[in-house]
Amino acid sequence: MAEFDITINGTLHRVEAEPDLPLLWLIREGLALTGTKYGCGIGQCGACLILVDNQPTPACLLSVQNARGRSITTIEGLTSRTAQAVQRAWIAHQVPQCGYCQSGQVVAATALLERTPAPSEEAITQAMSPVLCRCGTYPRIKKALNELAMSGPFKADDHDQDTD
Amino acid sequence: MIKTPINRRQFLKVAGATAATGFALGVVSSTAGCSRKPAANSTETNWLAWFEMSARGKVVLHCPRVELGQGIHTGLAMVFAEELDLDMSNIEVAPARLDSAFGSQLTQDSDGIRSNWALVRQLAALARQQLRTAAAAHWQVDVSQCATDRGSVVHAPTQRQLNYEALLAPAARLPLPDSVPLKTPDQFTLVGKPYPRLDIPPKVNGAQRYNGDIQVPGMLYAAIVHCPWVGGKVASVNEQSVEAAPGLKQLVALENAVALVADTYWAAEKARRALEVTWARPDTPVLDSEQQYQYLDEQCSAPGPVAFERQQSSGLSANAGERPFSARFRFPYQAHAPMETMNCIADVRAHRCEVWAPTQAPWYVYRLALNHGLSSLFRFMERVHLKLTRETSDRIKVHVPMAGGGFGRRLYLDYVQQAIEVSKAVKAPVKLMWSREDEIRNGFYQPASAHRIEAALNTEGRLTRWYHRIAGPGDHTHGADFFYDCDDAQVEVSSHTMGMRIGAWRSVSDATNTQARELFINRMCEQNSLDPFAFRLSMLSGSPRLGAVLEKARALVEPAEGVRVGVAVHQMRASYIAQVVEVSHHSSVPEILRVICVIDCGIAVNPDSIRAQMEGGIVFGLSALLHDGITIKDGRIEQSNFHDYPLLRYRAMPTVQTHIMPSAEAPGGVGELAVPCIAPALIHALGEGVLPRDILA
Description:
The complex is a heterodimer. By secondary structure, chain A is α+β, with helices and mostly antiparallel strands. Chain A contains six helices and five strands; from the N terminus they run ββαββαβαααα. Chain A has helices at 23-30, 64-67, 81-92, 102-115, 121-128, 138-149, and strands at 2-8, 11-17, 49-52, 55-58, 71-73. Chain A has a five-stranded mixed β-sheet, with helices on both faces. By secondary structure, chain B is α+β, with helices and mostly antiparallel strands. Chain B is globular, with a radius of gyration of 28 Å. The interface between A and B is large, with 56 and 59 residues.
């Protein structure tokens, strides 16, 4: 066990944990941020996607030790205008079915649009393929993202929290 | 409006009312964490077991089907609001308590809407009728002058109105009428139009809670290691191998698995990796996949029990020019692989048991708690209570949170029994969580099957003989019926135990029987230069609704150079479907242009939910083509996670266009409908020499 300073959703947490603890379990159990889900444990399904310095990353593969000094954002911390637009579009297009993968989907989609406000179909495909959906919501994700890609206003994005 | 007679016995059974008192102001027991007892002088009135009306103007509909994201709560709320004449914004849906009046309360078989459509309509219409009658009595006018308007009864001539809550008490005391008016489809204002699903908003921002997100005071965590040999058991556990495991509290040996209980999941999981268990292999190991297939192939060479036959003569007898065709097919076991693995929270004390489980079968959870949780004295008391009152008591509380996908897997509650046994052993609440490897390797799989089809065409290209043998573990009769015209058709289905755990997988044997049948027909057409649409259409006199969807699908195809079209049709659970896949062969890598999906599912209650089920079913069916299924070698399941049991990804998703045929027929099932046809349609559109997995990866 050792102490680690981890910044999650803009808040610094000092945690006591084993160095190899996957951040997924710190987030879900240690910090009770349950929006990030366990799906496979080997980084194949995307249910545990978080943003690490704005990059979508599987939380199951990132150890607490390696999360030090990084800026971690979970689904709960997605409050930017881009994130809100994604979530509005998800509702407008009735995207989720069971919903279990959707935190990962929304994280991936938000990161994509913040990085590339008007992404090509290929860029969308690349960004979204890491997140599996057993219910098959892909067609609606595609419609939602195609619409968002054409929307434009997220080009100048201000976050409601400090990005660092 | 049409008048529908009330089935008094059915209503009285559900209502707990008597003929004399009509709807009693009922008291609903608060078991199952669902509907609760209203206070003695509360203004809330329980109308039957199905709904409550509160003074705030809200109606709570108790739904005896689990919302899994398929939209059943929203769909039944729409049906209810339609006949009761309520605004959807005034309806909430809650899970129904465990009550035998609801039937099995299983969420399966695409039956959520189709099984409850008539009863929910009648209940709502009855309530509306009683409210109107009560208002008429109060105003001393004729009930025919009393209409309803979204939650109020109105008397147009005098412009008086009363809202439903004000009329509840007098309405509840009225005797049941002999019949109630139901709307005709042309009068629907809600049903038939897309409505945004009630369960969606919390699913877009991480707010939706699943079972693994629930914390219970004093809760411990359990990981589990299952015997890697199918049918094997625990022989001995080397406790010393985890002596030094930090946070580990206790080991609990179950019949074929060992649970590790710790104060965090990761501590349990790390201990699991270190734990040494000696397993006892089964006396008769499960056969390797290839051996299973060979055995099942042999069974297809011998006659089996006849599941379907039609012997008639229409003059289209086999003649000298008859061309026979035959083919064999093999289909593997398939895992469900919902995104949320199996998990369960159990808090077992001698005198009471509380279980939180994502499930499609809440009654099974209750029974497991009854039989494996409660001590024998309290089990006896609960059984007596159940028998006398026909209700469950607070001794056993079952919570059913939103599940991350079911597809049939959550009908089999091994994970619930495990959690109950572990909690009982450690005398504390335990959250048992399965890894993905646990889920892939300990499934209740879609059963494998072997098929042999022999058929014959006469010189006019008409089918004169169809002989289909199916062999596999479990029940392969679903979808085995041969619905095409054919004088001499016979389907034989034999069941053979192979020692594997099997269960209902989305669309069950409709998937494999349809794939064999439709692939065979497509090949037969191709070899004889017959148009697969025309050929089928000429043989659907026995199923005009299926013929109609196929006609529509054909009309939607735009023939193009270099584009191969594959078609397949099926009918199941009172619905009809035709799927067409268009594949472009212009470049060296074939490309799916689109999937056309035409369905007749009767009245489409929430068309958008239906479209979502078509899209989802297609993805589910396509995923099965990415690999060889669940395979067995040396008595062990070979697959373990998504690297060797892949699911379809976003990048491989084709464009899907769904067309829902207008219909006034009763709603049919749609949850499984889109799975069976996609494989045979795609395989035919790809043509020889192209494997689906080559273009779907």
